[in-house]
């Protein structure tokens, strides 16, 4: 029997860690566009992360809670092991200079924990989720390539007021997309603790608490993430950033409509690549891109393995 208090405590801690890993990646590029300061941007992101799941009843969170592994006590144990394993994997890779997707780690670890506990993992549903997740950065890249034809980066200084307004709209859309998709992973452990009402929603104060923890984590993680996402991929202009934000929002909102969790970080990076590639492939810092790609490739199998071993040991200890 898993104590609900344990799941709640880990859920709040995970919200803070998610802010540290994801929040900075959403904020860092946009802070290079004049007109949107840190505190208003953080407020928009936090509000979207807290409110959108409440309004939409968090379909992506329910996908993670009950689709990959079956619900119930065994499923809750699998999720607990999975989320701890995902954090460990992301921390270990980041320490080695390979910042990666926490959402991808959660997906892999959930399947691994289910397998380690001998549960009936929904492999077909997992395959669909992984296909959608793998396509997200490429969709973001393609949308950014198309969108960049509408924004001539040489006009940034002349059209800066337009860029500022466009940035506010694009950034807000990006935050809404995050709240409608992979931001919902911060709800999963609280849902597994049995806190949901019959309509699938938590009480409103839980969204507030999770949003606050996420905001604190974002503020703590922003300086580190800004070095790899904000400026590491290419020397960004306002047009690059606005294009990438619109592209990432489109890619992630499309995935949310399918109920499939995808990484906003991956979609943003795909959008930045698409915006930069339109001018010249030489603008891209390919060494940074290769490092990110390597991290994404190893994250899922590593998270699966760590979670499977962790679940097997946990089951043995619990008898």
Describe this protein's structure.
α2 (38-56) packs parallel to α7 and α2 (38-56) crosses α9. This protein is an all-alpha fold and 319 residues long. The protein has helices at residues 4-30, 38-56, 59-66, 73-95, 102-116, 123-148, 160-180, 188-192, 204-230, 238-257, 264-277, 286-318. The protein has 12 helices and no strands. Helices cover 75% and strands 0% of the residues.
Give a summary of the structure in a few sentences.
By secondary structure, the chain is mainly alpha-helical. 75% of the residues lie in helices and 0% in strands.
State the distance separating the first and last CA atoms.
12 Å
Number of helices: 12
The chain-level structural class is mainly alpha
Note the overall shape: globular
The overall strand count is: 0
Return Rg in Å: 19 Å
Helix content: over 70%
Oligomeric state as shown: single chain
N-to-C series of helices and strands: HHHHHHHHHHHH
Low-confidence stretches: none
Query: What's the story with the biggest beta sheet?
Result: none
Strand content: under 5%
Main attributes of the structure:
12 helices, 0% strand, mainly alpha, 319 residues, single chain, globular
